[in-house]
Amino acid sequence: VYRNGRIYTVDAQRSWAEAVAVSGGRIIYVGTNDGAEGHIGSKTQVVDLKGRMMLPGMQDAHVHPIGGGVEASACDLNGSTGIAEYRTAIAEYAAANPDIPWILGGGWSMADFGPGGAPNKSILDELVPDRPVFLSSRDGHTGWANSVALNIAGITKDTPDPADGRIDRDPETGEPIGALQEGAQKLVRSHIPETSDEERIAGLLYSVKMLNEYGITSIQDASVDEDSLKAYKTLEDRGQLSLRVVGSIWWDRDRDMGQVPEIVALRDKYTAGLIDARTVKIMQDGVMENYTAVLLEPYLVPSHTRGIPMVEPELLKQVVARLDAEGFQVHFHAIGDGAIRQSLDAVEEALVQNGRLGHRHHISHIQLFDPADIPRFKELDVVANFQPLWAYADAYITDLTIPFIGEERARWLYPIKSMQDSGAVIAFGSDWSVSMANPYHQMETAITRKDAVIDDAESFIPEERIDLATAIAAFTINAAFVNRKENDTGSIEVGKYADLVVLDRNLFETEAKDISETRSLLTLFEGRPVYGDIAAL
Description:
globular; alpha/beta
C-alpha cells in the first residue's frame, strides 16, 4: 500500500487520490488513506509517499531502444557539440579500439554542417585513414562516410542516386563528398558487418535501464525486424524486460506486397506476453534539413525541390488498405505537409475499402502542416504522434528549416495546440536516440515552446503551447491508447497493472521552466521496483 501521496490518476475525471493498493501486480484500490486501511494486513508492505507525486508509468510512443543502445557503446557523438568535439570523440574512439574493423556509431547534428547537413569525408580521412568509418546523423537520415568506406561500397562520381536518397557531391567535380542522404546510406550499410545478437541484447539492456530510470514502463519501438523481436523475446524469457513493447515492423519500400505474409508471420510468432507485433512502420518521407521531407509546395532553396516520397502515393493507399484489412496498426513517419497528406489519404482509402476497423493508425513527427489537414486526424481516427522536444527554435529550425520554407509556412511547425483544439488524440514519443528520452524535458518544451535547458529565448509559436495536463496525458493514457493498452495501463485505476512512477516534485506545483529538472524516484512495473529504492523514499 502506498499512502500519503499526491496521486494524479489520469482517469477520465483526472481525479486525485491519497493512496494506492497493489496486489499480484495490479491495482486493487485507489482512494483515500482511510479507505486503504482495509487492504493492510500483517504481511502488507506500507510505503509512506510523504506527499510526493505518483503518476501512471510513462509510455513512449516512438523510440529506438535497440539502435540507440548499440550506438551508446559505439562511437557515440550524441553528447558532443560542434565539429571540434566530434573530431576529438572520433579520434579517441578510434585510438581506444584499434582492432575494430569498422568505426561505427553516430549522433552528430546536421546543423553543425550548414545547409543540407552534409559533412565532408576529409575530416574522417584525416582522423581514420586506414579503416572504414560510417557515422549516422543524430536523426538517422544522413550517413557520414570516409573514403575507405566509399571505396568499399564502390561509390564514385558515376554512381547514380537511388530513388529514395541522394549522394552529396562536390559541385565542381561531381565526386562524392562523404554525406549520404536517406536511402543512399544503404549503399554503405550493406557492407557493414551485421550487429550480433549479443550486441543487440546488450544495447537493449542499456536502454531498458535508462527508460525505467525516466519512469517509462511501455514503449512503441518505431522500427523492428525479426532480430529485434527476438532480442525482446530473449529479455522477456530471462525476466529482464521491464517494459511493455509494441514493435513496429519495418515496411521494406524496396519490396512489393509480397512481404505482407512475412509480416503476418512475424506478428503471429512474436505477439505474446509483453510483446505486441501488430504494428507496421511506413516511412513516407525524409527530413526538412536535407530537403527530403515531402512538401506540397517547393522548398525556396533549392528551387523546385519537393522532397522524396518513399512510397509512391497511390501504392501507399493500397499498402495501408491491405495492412488495415490484415489487422495491423500503421505507424507512419511523415514530416512534410505533403507526406502528412499522403499518409492521411492512405488511411482514408483504407476506411473506404474496409470500414472503420479501429486500428489506431498514427502519424509520427508531423512537423509541417497545411492547416487544412489538421481536422482530418480526428475525422479519420488518426492519432497525432508528436515528438515535443523538437517544438522550439533550435538550430535545426532557425538555420536549416525556416530559411528554406519561409516564415508563412513555418507558422505551422509542430501545431500541437491546434491539433488538441481539433479534438484529435495526441500522443508523445521521444524518437530517442534522435533526441533524449527524458519525458520531463519533453513536457516542458511542449508547455513553453522553449529549449528545456536554455529557456531564456522567446517561445516559438507561443499560440501552440499546451498545458501540463495535456502533456501528461500524451505520455500516459493517450500513449496507452496508441499502444492498445489503455484497458490495462495509462492511468491509475482498479484492475490496471501497477505500472507507476513516483516523482521528486508535484508537477502541478512546479514552474513550467523547472519541469525538466524532475527526477523519477521510484518506477514500478507490475508493482515491482525496476528503478529506485522503496526504502529510500
